[in-house]
């Protein structure tokens, strides 16, 4: 069980909650801060002070004072009116992450919600009740208003949730079946639920989990390609990378040396050629740069997942209530745009290695790795597919964060578009993993032509495992199915126990 404090949640802990469905508990110290913050809100209401979000309208309506008897209706209207998400829902794992992150933010004790509300969020997590949340409709400032409003609907017994089999159903009967009692939102609570960056951050963390695995998988797959092309091992010498000084570049080179240790397929400078093409020679430099970006993304995500991002924030036991802008998603928008470029580049260089594996003008392997060149096309169109995916990624990699459209009658006149950036990063990741799957299939075949017995021991082990997912190319077949099998084998979010039962999970 993971204890949530509002201050110490890590990506590794969140992975356990998301993938292993580990339950959460609430720190008693943090719960006491929640109670103190709520007491301050109740005093503000009782004293009839005018404070944004407690007894005023929202956005451009912030100057409209709301009578005390309408405070509950104000919060209900807020959630219903803001629940205008559009399009396909976020993956269920992202919905679960959003609940965890919203709960963790409220536990910081700056939001003024009741203990019963944070307990209800924890109950949703521990009973696997996940709201159905449309992906589109957030500007990424004033918080992820529309997505988080769909989350908040479930707390009041409205909206939709997943039924356990991935099907959207009305929330009310599921809550009843699970013994979960909806609540009536009180002063400040509706706003506290939707002012935040939890949609973009939840999507961002799931993206990071997948992108990190893609970066690791790209190394052993590239190692197989080096063997298939009898690449030059000298370029991985530690002196080369120490001379430049980037830690990530040095780390990639070191891992590549470990993968290729004991290989009889690699060559030395001058044995077959003096230099390899950049897509082989510059793997540590290019992959290392992507790792630099991913390290930056991880740092920003782990700050944001423990941040207070709603508005207003309550300090000094209610003596200081400040309307600020911590809901603005600019830091995460930049991070997601950076991630898009980093992952797209892993796919770009992978596609160039695919070309070197299949192009008979660039190697001495059978043309397009075909078992009968001419009669059978082999991997020819797999390279087309990879080229299409990397081209699509170049469009998706356009930075969302450079755009802004004013909203709420120009009260909210600069927004981050961070949620768009996180969604597009997710699309790039899915494309990139499929490009790597294609490189993997081609590299498996190339090593087979060279002689699997000559491969490095660690890569020979990978070769044997991957061959359980995709057989050797002995004749043309529907390669789309092969690509998807390898894609699933490389996906860290796949239910591994189910996959093992099917005999296709690759560790």
Automatic annotation (TrEMBL):
SUPFAM superfamilies: L-aspartase-like. GO terms for molecular function: histidine ammonia-lyase activity. Contains an active site 4-methylidene-imidazol-5-one (MIO), which is formed autocatalytically by cyclization and dehydration of residues Ala-Ser-Gly. The keyword Lyase applies. It holds the Pfam family Lyase_aromatic. It is an enzyme of class 4 (lyase). InterPro entries: Aromatic_Lyase, Fumarase/histidase_N, HutH, L-Aspartase-like, Phe/His_NH3-lyase_AS. This is Histidine ammonia-lyase. Keywords: Cytoplasm, Histidine metabolism, Lyase. Belongs to the PAL/histidase family. It catalyses: L-histidine = trans-urocanate + NH4(+). Its EC number is 4.3.1.3. The lineage of its organism: Bacteria, Bacillati, Bacillota, Bacilli, Bacillales. Pathway: Amino-acid degradation; L-histidine degradation into L-glutamate; N-formimidoyl-L-glutamate from L-histidine: step 1/3. There is a cross-link at residues 141-143 (5-imidazolinone (Ala-Gly)).
